[in-house]
Design a protein that fits this description.
Blueprint (H helix, E strand, L loop, with lengths): L1 E5 L2 E3 L5 E8 L7 E7 L6 E6 L5 E3 L7 E6 L4 E6 L8 E9 L5 E4 L3 E5 L2
Parallel strand pairs: 2-11
Antiparallel strand pairs: 1-3, 3-8, 4-5, 4-9, 5-6, 7-8, 9-10, 9-11
Length: 117
């Protein structure tokens, strides 16, 4: 199983980035897909979730600014981030979650997002 994130980088406050997560080795359409992030000195926190059926949910801190989506035909999930703030800085991780059915979940290696002027 592999989850590979991409699209991170350095962006100015107010800017946008689109993160991607390519999944392989799983039946992608069966999994809920999530994004988490972790900044130095802090615990990993949940950012957004999209269910296998396409329902979405967001942490209050990103609601209205971030959009999660998925493409089951391509085994991809995305996180469109807008109006970025310095507090959005961190390593963003892709997570595939099937704990409700099989007990399985997987993590990507993370991609760094830095919001700074």
């Amino acid at each position: 199983v592999q989850l590979v994130e991409s699209g991170g980088g350095l962006v100015q406050p107010g800017g946008s980035l689109r993160l991607s997560c390519a999944a392989s080795g799983i039946t992608f359409s069966h999994y809920a897909m999530l994004w988490y992030r972790q900044s130095p000195g802090n615990e990993r926190e949940w950012v957004a979730r999209i269910s296998s059926g396409g329902s979405t949910d967001y942490a209050d801190s990103v609601k209205g600014r971030f959009t999660i989506s998925r493409d089951n035909a391509k085994n991809m999930q995305y996180l469109q981030m807008a109006s970025l703030k310095p507090e959005d800085t961190g390593v963003y991780y892709c997570n595939a979650d099937d704990t409700a059915v099989t007990g399985l979940y997987f993590w990507g290696q993370g991609t760094q997002v830095t919001v700074s002027s």
